[in-house]
Design brief:
Largest sheet: none
Number of domains: 2
Distance between the termini: 92 Å
Mean pLDDT: 86
Number of strands: 0
Radius of gyration: 26 Å
Order of helices and strands: HHHHHHHHHHH
Length: 209
């Protein structure tokens, strides 16, 4: 009986290896096609048609062909595939696979014709199920990681109560500070135009004083 259990465990362990290879191969294939303009976009005839004559999938394929969106998704899929292939990073790859696959699933259900969407929904759902089996196989590590992430944290220092009241103000200042790098970039790129814009604002303010 013990030998039988060991054989079952070994078979399931090999099955997980097959899953990792399948998911990695699938993502490498689709990721590569996005990097080489082999998946998204429209042909010449479709580009000449009014947008009202194109179905939602064609419109989506046209929008997805622009950069950096297509490259970002392609690189993300290939990176996820590489993680799945190595034992050290397999759980990281399985974790990254979930949001990518879930987003693709929602997009397909939204823009694809119903019959095609159903087919892809079953296929992607099957891939997601396979990915979850990876977590199940390494459940001890997953449970320990989950416990670590949800065990709570403590502040490294105690802060005065008044500082907590000022949190909305400091958050607002931090939000506005995000515009500083953009303003510097625009000023360096088009100094004369930026200076004219600043002076026009100053002149308007001075007139209203």
């Amino acid at each position: 009986m013990k030998a039988l259990n060991l054989n079952k465990a070994k078979i399931f362990d090999y099955f997980i290896l097959v899953i990792r290879f399948l998911l990695a191969y699938t993502f490498i294939r689709y990721g590569y096609s996005k990097l080489t303009d082999g998946q998204f976009g429209l042909n010449e005839n479709e580009l000449l048609q009014p947008i009202k004559d194109l179905n939602l999938m064609k419109v989506g394929w046209y929008l997805f062909s622009f950069q950096p969106f297509s490259y970002f998704i392609g690189v993300s899929q290939i990176l996820c595939a590489i993680f799945l292939l190595f034992n050290r990073t397999v759980l990281l790859g399985a974790l990254l696979f979930l949001p990518i696959a879930a987003n693709i699933l929602i997009i397909d259900l939204t823009i694809m014709p119903k019959q095609m969407a159903n087919a892809f929904a079953f296929r992607l759902s099957f891939y997601i199920l396979l990915d979850l089996l990876i977590f199940y196989h390494y459940r001890e590590k997953v449970i320990n990681a989950f416990k670590s992430l949800t065990s709570g944290i403590k502040f490294k220092f105690k802060h005065h109560f008044s500082l907590y009241l000022l949190l909305p103000l400091f958050a607002l200042v931090l939000e506005f500070s995000s515009a500083i790098p953009t303003a510097i970039f625009i000023f360096l790129k088009e100094p004369q135009k930026s200076w004219n814009y600043i002076t026009s604002i100053v002149n308007v303010l001075l007139k209203n004083i």
